[in-house]
Amino acid sequence: MRFERGPTRELARFIGTAGYCGYAPFASGTVGTLPAVVLAPGLALLAAYSTALYLLSLLVWLLLALWATRHCLEIFDSGDPGEIVIDEVLGFFVTVAFLPLDLTTLLLGFFLFRFFDVLKPPPARQAESLPGAVGVVADDLIAGLMANLSLRLLMWAWPLLLS
User: Fold this and answer.
1) How deeply is 21 buried, as exposed, middle or buried, from its count of CB atoms within 10 A (0-12, 13-18, 19+)?
2) Is the pTM for the entire model greater than 0.90?
3) Residue ranges of the alpha helices (H) in the chain?
4) CA angle 31, 136, 120 (to 5 degrees)
5) Smallest Cα–Cα separation from 92: which of 125, 68, 74, 116?
6) Distance CA 105, CA 93 (A)
7) SS3 at position 7
8) Distance in angstroms (rounded) separating the CA atoms of residues 155 and 139
9) Residues 128/119, Cβ–Cβ less than 8 Å
10) Domain locations in the chain?
11) Residues 120-159 pLDDT 10s
12) DSSP letter assigned to residue 152
C-alpha cells in the first residue's frame, strides 16, 4: 500500500529514522544507534520485571521496525537508504538483551554492535540480500546477536584474564 503525504507517512519517517537521527550528515548508522543506548536501560528494567513482557516488547520493536522500514523504503525510494536507522535501534536492543546493564556493558555493546553491523560477517551479509524491509532489518538483528554473544564471552573471560 502506497501512501503519499499525511500523518502515517510522517510517523513512519520519524520511527524509521529513529527520531530523525538517520539524517545525520555522516555515520547515520552510528548516530542512529544512540537512541537505543538511551532507551536500553528502560527495557532492562522491564526485563527485570518480566521476561515475557521484555520478549513482547522486543517483538513490538521488531514489528514497528518492519512497518516503518517498509514505508521508508517507499519514501526514500532506495534499496537500503542510510536514513533508515530503526534497524540499528532494534539491533542494539538485541545486543544488550538479557545482560546486566551498566555503563561498561552499554559502551562495549555499542562498539561491538557497530563493529558487526559495519563488518557484516556471514550470515549477516547474506541476510541483507533478503527482499524489502526484512533484508534491511535482518542483518542488524544478526549483528546484534553476534555482538550479544561476543559481549557475553567478554564478560565471562574478563575476570579469568585478570586473575
Assistant:
1) buried
2) yes
3) 7-16, 28-49, 51-76, 86-95, 103-119, 124-128, 132-162
4) 75
5) 116
6) 12
7) helix
8) 24
9) no
10) 7-162
11) 999 999 999 999 999 999 999 999 999 999 999 999 998 7
12) H
